[in-house]
């Protein structure tokens, strides 16, 4: 099983960051790669579309409001992996009220690609996503 993780300090309190990204259906609010999200099954599943129109279906597998994190599994996607589970976490930074650390990590099995290729793919998605989050919060 392969894995990757990206962290980024963003210019907002953990509470503000979580209020933006903590909703399972909130990706279009901060992630340009996902302009469309439709909640299904009472919000436990999201049907996403990327700019190319590809469909990605994900299921929420863990959610913790108090600790500000959630995990999800990909059920359908155009990515060369299976067994994908990812977690987004928001951490407080001691002594910095108006900053937070956001960590986006995932583990997955390559399927039709090398481990290096899928690690590079998801590292790039997470990095670009956290850069977009930083830009949204800095505006």
From TrEMBL:
Signal peptide location: none
Pfam families, per the entry: Polyketide_cyc2
Superkingdom of the organism of origin: Bacteria
Name used for this protein in its record: SRPBCC family protein
Species for this entry: Streptomyces misionensis
